[in-house]
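Appendix C: a fully annotated inverse folding record. The material below is reproduced so that readers can follow the format used throughout the book. The structure is listed first as tokens, followed by the designed sequence.
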């Protein structure tokens, strides 16, 4: 199969080609954020993937933008642990925050493009894998000769300027009006999105979607095949220990409205059994702390916590709460909770219900205060904090360990590399062709 082709791929097809193959490859992972310069789970996923590939002997390089982090947060983050097997390349930005602003507003940053092209010439990667490139620009999508181009969709950037499919940041988008939405959201309109050449991201050979929902959402916006591989996290609980739950439900994430914190606060002010521990930071932190200090809501604000403390909270939680009001993809916090045997109580939006595995690992509810109160009462009445713990751990082991993810990932990458590359044709979405692409689901031990 030639590069750029849209033929369907399956991981089972790849097995015969790759079984016994020990070839090592050179990877370049391009991402806006990378720990410690990061804000959310997409950057952590890149770190996990980089370290997992390096552990198998591959040469792994990561480029990212410290200037993009400083656009979102002031100062320099504390330094974390360094993995010397992964080679890190911060993108220089002589003009500071102007560089990511240009990438966002105009679709390109000359500085990012020059840095990326120089790095590609230097390391000559076999695979260029782009992730969240919203503040890097389209220049990193230029495919080098003899390299495979892969994209992981952590959000809806390929089709939505806000990346979250929320109209005006408040409700699901059913009839796009992107310029007005950007203005109401206090963001500059991305007029480059109305051009023809970028649409379909024609430089890509393959896209990875961590949820089936995401695969279906971005598929019509891409020319290449979309492969579903469930998200993963390093196993924090290799002994498989299951602990007795205590009396609290847990939330882990940024404290912003789209994550559903107002829903938890609303439910926690009502009579009932919902007691919540909140881990994270964000714009709602002050108002939630005020509710806690006044004794109005049964909230315990933890702030940012150490990895050890977070593990303790996961293992003793009745369930992890994910009441998001936007279509979440496959959040890492859910995978981490499953590793400790903690069940999930999730919104019905996006790909969250896929992580419930038909009810084996949790329940879903409508993301409202009433919906959460009702769900918590039913969850406790059926003793699910105890009954689901073994199945939660089993779902993690079968579907979300690094070994499982990287096995599938490498099978598909190597299958795509079997044939020599051919140039991508110029692409115009107005040429009358069908831009829909196949969605391919890799096999897994536990099916949702």
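Designed amino acids, in order:
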């Amino acid at each position: 199969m030639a590069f750029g082709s849209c033929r369907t791929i399956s991981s089972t097809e790849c097995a015969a080609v790759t079984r016994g193959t020990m070839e090592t490859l050179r990877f370049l992972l391009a991402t806006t954020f990378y720990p410690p310069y990061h804000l959310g789970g997409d950057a952590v996923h890149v770190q996990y993937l980089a370290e997992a590939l390096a552990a198998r002997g591959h040469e792994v390089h990561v480029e990212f933008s410290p200037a993009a982090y400083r656009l979102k947060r002031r100062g320099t983050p504390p330094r974390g642990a360094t993995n010397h097997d992964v080679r890190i390349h911060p993108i220089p930005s002589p003009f500071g925050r102007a560089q990511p602003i240009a990438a966002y507003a105009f679709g390109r940053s000359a500085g990012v493009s020059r840095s990326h092209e120089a790095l590609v010439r230097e390391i000559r990667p076999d695979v260029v894998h782009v992730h969240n490139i919203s503040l890097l620009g389209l220049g990193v999508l230029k495919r080098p000769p003899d390299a495979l181009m892969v994209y992981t969709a952590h959000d809806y950037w390929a089709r939505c300027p806000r990346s979250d499919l929320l109209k005006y940041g408040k409700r699901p988008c059913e009839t796009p009006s992107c310029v007005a939405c950007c203005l109401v959201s206090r963001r500059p309109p991305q007029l480059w999105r109305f051009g023809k050449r970028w649409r379909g991201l024609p430089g890509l050979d393959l896209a990875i979607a961590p949820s089936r929902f995401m695969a279906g959402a971005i598929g019509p916006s891409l020319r290449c095949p979309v492969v579903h591989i469930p998200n993963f996290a390093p196993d924090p609980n290799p002994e498989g220990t299951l602990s007795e739950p205590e009396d609290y439900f847990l939330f882990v994430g940024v404290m912003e409205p789209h994550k559903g914190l107002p829903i938890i606060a609303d439910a926690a002010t009502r009579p009932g059994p919902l007691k919540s521990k909140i881990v994270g930071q964000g714009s709602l932190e002050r108002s939630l702390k005020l509710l806690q200090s006044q004794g109005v809501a049964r909230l315990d604000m933890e702030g940012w916590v150490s990895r050890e403390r977070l593990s303790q909270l996961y293992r003793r939680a009745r369930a992890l709460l994910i009441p998001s009001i936007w279509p979440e993809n496959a959040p890492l916090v859910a995978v981490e909770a499953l590793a400790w045997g903690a069940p999930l109580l999730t919104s019905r939006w996006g790909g969250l219900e896929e992580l419930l595995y038909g009810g084996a690992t949790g329940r879903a509810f409508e993301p409202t205060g009433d919906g959460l109160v009702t769900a918590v009462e039913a969850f406790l009445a059926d003793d699910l904090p105890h009954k689901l713990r073994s199945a939660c751990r089993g779902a993690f082991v079968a579907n979300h360990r690094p070994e499982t993810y990287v096995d599938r990932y490498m099978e598909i990458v190597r299958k795509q590399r079997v044939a020599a590359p051919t140039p991508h044709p110029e692409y115009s979405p107005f040429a009358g062709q069908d831009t829909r692409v196949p969605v391919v689901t890799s096999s897994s031990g536990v099916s949702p």
